[in-house]
Amino acid sequence: MSDEQARKIIRILEAVKSRPEMYVGKRDDPKEIQTFLWGIHVICRTLTGVDYDFFREIALKRGWKNSPVGIVPSMREAGLSDEEIVTELITIDIEAYKQIFKLESLNLNN
After folding, report:
1. Separation of alpha carbons 32 and 36, rounded Å
2. How much is the pTM?
């Protein structure tokens, strides 16, 4: 995957983060955003070979506990609303892709 393709993925995720209802229908539905994000993961994994476990590591670094049903229960336990969970799930993916593609310090608008 080229740097430009990686930047596009991150820009798309940043757009989804700012207006999730435009992309997945509801701003406050963690299941819908997880389905959307999983589609992006499948495409990126196919193109790059990056394993989904990397995203779990980012979530753990951000303080979320993983369970057999994912990290959302940990977020609920912490008192996050569904809208906050959606935002956090997207944020985790943005951080993960920036690290995977080594774009943390690059200007993504270029």
Report:
1. 6
2. 0.86
- What amino acid occupies position 109? N
Closest CA to 37 of 107, 91, 100, 76: 91
Neighbours of 16 (CB within 10 A): 21
Three-state DSSP class for residue 70: strand
Give me the amino acid identity at 30: P
Residue keyed to tokens 């819908």? 32
Report the distance separating Cα 90 and Cα 86, nearest Å: 6
Give the C-alpha separation, 69 to 99, whole Å: 25
Q: Per-residue pLDDT tens for 8-43?
A: 989 999 999 999 989 888 888 899 999 999 898 888
